[in-house]
Amino acid sequence: MTASIALAGVIGFPIAHSRSPRLHGHWLKDHGIAGHYVPLQVAPKDLAATLDLLPRIGFRGVNVTLPHKEAVMTLAAETTEEARRVGAANTLLFKDNGFLADNTDVYGFASNILAQVPAWQPRVAAVIGSGGASRAVLVALLDRGVAEVRLTNRTSERATRLAEEFGSRIRPIPWDSRSEMLAGCDTLINATALGMTGKPPLDLCLDSLPSTAVVSDLVYSPLETPLLAAARTRGNKVVDGLGMLLHQAVPGFEYWFGLRPKVDLALRNAVLAQ
Q: Angle formed by the axes of helices 105-116 and 242-257, to 10°?
């Protein structure tokens, strides 16, 4: 009798840019698991039908990326607390009665920083951006016991709405005051696409930021963004965004393949390989 092949994948539209197949493929090979992780380009109009079909043809679950992270919440039979708090899911586990929707970006963000700065304990943080990535960052900061988050966004109304939703520890700051808000912060996070390859750089003066602050950029293409390069030059500890991608994948792999993998240098090199 032939053993079944474990199947998982990633759904997005588009999806060709995703590094997740390389990431999970490395773990599958490294652990000798008979399984596949495949990219699936799925248009929004086909999302519900695809999620209904996949478990019937042997898929154990999938990752979900743009533009489906919020839509899957309305289709899920069950959602985790993290997914509900963020308002979006990136990891699905197929079950007999539907699927569980989880958000592992919260775990991935915090684990990435803690892997580089084990003593990280944010008290006053500055966050640039109010999109979906920012929501996961805010949940992680609140869970770590942050006292104040200074949140700014080019569209100020979005920062204000997030502050109203997430509570009094989130303080919206006008975009024009983004450089001044860094005074006294121990953590700075860029949760926008600014600084990404093909995008404008993040226009931010770091003069007010303490040199002891941790600076994290969720962008990982390039690995060292202009923000991280500037922070490194002035002596700040810097954390690139690739680690968040790697760490957020750990719970999903365990869901689907029954083994909790490690994030290490070999994985990082495999994902970066051309």
A: 120
Q: What is the distance between the alpha carbons of residues 144 and 78, in angstroms, rounded to a whole number?
A: 25
Over residues 126-146, the pLDDT tens digits come to 999 998 899 999 999 999 999
Active site residue 29: no
CATH architecture of the domain with residue range 6-103+244-272: 3-Layer(aba) Sandwich (3.40)
How many other C-beta atoms can be found within 10 angstroms of the C-beta atom of residue 171? 15
The DSSP annotation for 51-65 comes to HHHGGGGTEEEEEE-
pTM: 0.94
Of 45, 69, 199, 237, the catalytic one is 69
CATH code of the domain occupying 106-240: 3.40.50.720
Arithmetic mean of pLDDT, 19-27: 97
Residue 220 has pLDDT above 50, yes or no: yes
